[in-house]
Design brief:
By secondary structure, this protein is mainly α. It has 8 helices and no strands. Helices cover 72% and strands 0% of the residues.
Length: 159
């Protein structure tokens, strides 16, 4: 994660210089990496950040460092692999990193505003998907993942 954090800073700086922009936010660079290299990754955005921290510093680069340092401490990459493997054992292909990313984003959006359209819509979509006819295996995986995630992720999030 530290290498990825540094890569985000380098990419933001390079984009700023190459395109003569006044600034390129680290969050924008992290989102580009999120699409280009999805494995073992989560984006640095306000929702994910707010899942882990109560307030931001005045220094966005410090926020970026703090964010990825927490992901290292919680063994985000290994936890993502565990999520993927548990799902695969039931024949379900999931990108565990994306599952964790969505959990961070939901938690962060819920912390900032009690009811957000972003969080409410995403929760509805997930509920509808799980309740559809052919997803009993996914529901079983979700139940098993709850145990695994409660140990590392939810403890980090302060549950």
């Amino acid at each position: 994660m530290a290498v990825k954090r540094d890569a985000v800073v380098e990419l933001a700086d390079a984009l700023q210089m190459d395109f003569a922009l006044p600034a390129v936010p680290s969050s924008a660079a992290s989102k580009l990496f999120w699409f280009v290299r999805p494995t073992g990754w989560t984006m640095f955005d306000k929702h994910a950040f707010n899942a882990l921290f109560d307030k931001r510093s005045e220094n966005r680069r410090q926020d970026l460092k703090d964010f990825y340092d927490v992901l290292i401490e919680m063994e985000f990459s290994q936890l993502g692999e565990t999520v993927s493997m548990l799902a695969a054992s039931d024949g379900i292909s999931l990108n565990g990193d994306r599952v964790l990313d969505k959990l961070l984003m939901l938690r962060g959006s819920a912390k900032v505003i009690r009811e957000t359209r972003f969080g409410d819509d995403l929760r509805r979509i997930c509920r509808d998907y799980l309740e559809s006819a052919n997803n009993s295996a996914l529901a079983a995986v979700a139940s098993r993942l709850e145990d695994v995630l409660s140990v590392k992720l939810l403890r980090t999030l302060g549950h």
